[in-house]
Write a structure and sequence with these properties.
single chain, 268 residues, alpha+beta, Alpha-Beta Plaits, 2 domains, 24% helix
């Protein structure tokens, strides 16, 4: 039997989603927790990789098991697994799916958010990136429009990645002012201060390694006034990583949603 799980994690203490030999991963922690509770070897496949330090809200993964505890005692299982997991990872839900359903290959879109603040604050540093310059949000959104559609994102991808091509279809890319409440209880105080806090949201059918961070770094160059919005189109055409802006820090990046062509986690 195959099951999808819904979880969130704080990536600060992990080398990313995928198991690594050089540090702890979210995948490893989950597999250890499920294996310990179910008393069997459990392997878990995620919706995609996230880099070291990147966070996820409502992340999807799947596992296979014939243990009927996953059907008959789901609430107890969720409670027990959460008791085993480190504090930086939380299991929200679990549901049985078709045996050929796949958390990674069946996903039709993924959405990321990146948080930026331009004024010093003691409350956002762990989850938002300080960029201490005035930003023109209208110019950044004009620049972001060049990302929408099907493009080759070689200029905004980590070099020498093990992918067949760098073609991605971006369906949404936009900046807005404000800081989400999941990050800080001081949202209103921060977002009401003009120019203080910004959120970039981007959705696509797939993302390359380092892609979002390179995109944000490039858009910030436009927002700061060092480049014009049309520069983004020029970057994409060149297919050269050195043509784009520097990658921003990973600690302010969140994977916030993964969509599938079928319904999951139905409410009883």
């Amino acid at each position: 039997m195959r099951f999808f799980i819904l979880l969130s994690y704080n990536g600060s203490s992990y080398c990313g989603w995928q198991r690594q030999i050089n540090g702890p991963s979210v995948q490893e922690s989950l597999e250890n927790a499920f294996s310990a509770y179910l008393r069997e070897d459990v392997q878990i496949t995620g919706a995609g990789r996230t880099d070291s330090g990147v966070h996820a809200v409502n992340y999807i993964a799947h596992l296979d098991s014939c243990n009927d505890i996953l059907i008959k005692e789901q609430q107890t299982l969720i409670y027990k697994i959460n008791a085993i997991l480190p504090t930086g990872i939380v299991l929200h839900n679990i549901c049985q799916v078709a045996d050929d359903a796949h958390a990674r290959f069946d996903a039709v879109s993924r959405t990321y958010q990146y948080l930026v603040h331009t004024k010093k604050t003691p409350f956002l540093n762990d989850y938002s990136s300080l960029f201490p310059y005035p930003l023109d949000i209208d110019k950044m959104n004009s620049a972001a429009e060049y990302l929408v559609g099907q493009h080759d994102f070689t200029s905004m991808a980590k070099l020498h990645s093990d992918v067949k091509n760098n073609i991605c279809t971006v369906t949404y890319a936009k900046w807005k002012m404000g800081s989400p409440g999941i990050i800080t209880p001081y949202e209103k105080a921060i977002s009401s201060d003009e120019g203080g806090s910004f959120i970039f949201t981007i959705s696509a059918n797939r993302f390359l390694r380092n892609m979002v961070r390179a995109i944000v770094g490039s858009l910030l160059e436009v927002g700061r006034g060092r480049q014009e919005p049309e520069w983004i189109a020029d970057i994409l055409t060149k297919k050269d990583r050195s043509a784009a802006g520097s990658s921003v820090a990973s600690h302010a990046l969140f994977l916030i949603n993964v969509k599938y062509p079928y319904e999951l986690f139905k409410k009883s």
